[in-house]
Every structure is written in C-alpha cells, then in structure tokens.
Design a protein that fits this description.
By secondary structure, this protein is α+β, with helices and mostly antiparallel strands. Helix content is 22%, strand content 25%. The chain has helices at residues 9-19, 34-39, 44-50, 59-68, 82-88, 90-93, 116-127, 257-264, and strands spanning 3-4, 7-8, 24-29, 70-75, 147-148, 154-155, 164-169, 184-192, 198-204, 212-213, 215-217, 226-233, 240-248, 277-280, 286-289.
Length: 293
C-alpha cells in the first residue's frame, strides 16, 4: 500500500493487469493487511467527505476499478514464501491461466510495447507455457534475486557452499611493503566446502599456470573452515599473482573463472566459487585482480 503520487503501488499492479485484459483480481493477503481489501471497495464515508471538493476527481479511477472488475481475497496463514502464497490462491483461481503481479517494482511502459504484463500475455497466447519476466540489475544486487544460467535455467542462491578457497595474507591490509629481499614469509589462507572435507589446497604464483601444494593447518573437518599455509622466500622486485585452488573428499576441485562461466554464465560467477587472484606488486602492495586463461 506504499503510495506513489496519488495512489498506492498495489493499484498500479491492478491497473497493469487490467491493461493486459484481465477482469478478475485474486489477491493473497496476510495478517494486518485489511487495508488492501478496504481500498478496493466503496467507502461511502470517505466519498461523502470528498464530494464537492477539489479531490473528488481522485476518486474516479478507483470507483471505476471497483465497479467494473471483480476482487476476491484469501489469506496466506503462514509466511512460507512466494511459492506458498501463489499456492494459497489456488482456491480462487482453480485450473485457469493466471498472472502473478508483485507490486514491489513500478515498471514504466510505452505505447509501442505495452505493459510488461501485456507482453507476457501475448507470449503466453503464442506458446501456451509459463512466462517469466526478468530484470537486469547491478551486479552488487544480484544476491537478492534468482540468477539465470546461460541456458536460461534459474539458479537459487540457497545452495550448499561449493569447494572454495582464498588467500588471507598477504592482503591490501597486510601488504609486503616492509619485507626485505630473502625474507621468509608465510602465505596463509582459508578453504571450505559444503560438499565434504577439504583434502588439499594448491597455490600458484603466476595466476594459475603452475601450482605448488600447501600445508593444511589444524583440524580438517567436514563442511568447516580449513586453514592452509605455504612458506615462501620473498624476492624483492618480483610481481606475483597468488591464486589458491582447493579440493575436497567428494571429488570437487575449485574451478577457474572460465570453467565456471562456461557452466553458470557470467553473472552467476560473482556469487560462486571460481578461483580468485591477488597481485603482489614489485613494491609489495597487494591488489585483488581477475585472471582469465
């Protein structure tokens, strides 16, 4: 019921459904949302107060909607997510085709293409299958949504953590700027896997072209953080590309970025487990970089 200009956001959703040719609105509500039902109903007390004032024209749209279209309601007794809310509306819809309108985003439309929902209806009439609208969002916000593979198949973000690792030191906060040529320094990192127990971590100094085996520190337990380290003799003036690659007892090996992209698509890599690389510059400063083979 968040107001946008002169009407609540939900009313925009109803108007979009009407523009797509729908005349029956089945609304799934919940506890404390009685205002939704009251909005799509005649309010004689309010109308009497507004009649004859400058605000009377604002009642025209909602009066037309209430009188010309059918509204029915059911409640989602337990908050079990969107899928459950849609299922709760089955008693109102039965086996008829329907559209799910979420009044979370206000979508602009133009006269050429029509509203998003009207475009979806046209596709449904053509293909007779479920149609899903997708939205392009900034990469930083993709964790809030379901992402798509290159094939178009959806990926849920509620998955078991795949085998993964990272270099902890050196880091931008703990650079090697104070090291002298020939100093022996410990490279440390973490590895984890929701599939099993970490069995090993390899470390590359050239961005993944060649690897050496590191040493696991402490206990290696199933589905837990596992520490690893490697003793390195620092050579001042060298540029290093530190890349770690973990493996677990379920047979999984942490993939390269290109391997991940080939399976999951570009956007999904941002949230998954491809190897990552840290550049150590000639002066010992540390930067997070991406290396593609």
């Amino acid at each position: 019921m968040l107001p946008v200009l002169t009407k609540p956001l939900l009313q925009y959703g109803v108007e979009e459904a009407i523009s797509a040719g729908m005349d029956t609105m089945a609304i799934v509500t919940g506890r404390g949302k009685r205002a939704i039902e009251d909005h799509f109903d005649r309010s004689y007390e309010l109308e009497n107060q507004i009649n004859g004032t400058s605000k009377e024209s604002l009642m025209t749209e909602i009066r037309t909607i209430v009188s010309d279209y059918t509204f029915s309601y059911t409640r989602q007794v337990e908050m079990k997510g969107l899928g459950h809310a849609i299922l709760s509306g089955e008693t109102l819809i039965g086996e008829n085709p329907f559209a799910v309108v979420l009044a979370d985003d206000l979508c602009d439309s133009d006269a050429v293409h029509g509203s998003v929902l009207s475009q979806m209806v046209k596709l449904y009439e053509k293909f007779k299958c479920s149609i899903v609208a997708i939205e392009e969002v900034p990469k930083e916000e993709t964790s809030k949504y379901t992402a798509l593979k290159k094939t178009g198949k959806a990926i849920q973000h509620f998955y078991a953590n795949e085998v993964n690792s990272t270099v902890v030191t050196p880091s931008p906060e703990k650079p090697w700027t104070d090291l002298k040529d020939g100093d022996v320094v410990e490279i440390e990192g973490l590895a984890w896997s929701g599939m099993g127990t970490i069995t090993g971590v390899d470390l590359s100094f050239d961005g993944g072209k060649n690897y050496v085996e590191t040493k696991l520190k402490g206990l290696a337990l199933p589905k837990s953080w596992t520490r690893w380290s490697y003793m390195h003799t620092y050579k001042k003036g060298d540029t290093l590309l530190l890349t770690s690659r973990a493996m677990d007892d379920a047979g999984y090996i942490q993939p390269t970025i290109d391997q991940e992209v080939s399976i999951m698509g570009v956007e999904s890599v941002y949230h998954r487990n491809a190897v990552e690389t840290w550049e150590v510059t000639k002066t010992g400063k540390v930067n997070h970089v991406q290396v593609r083979s």
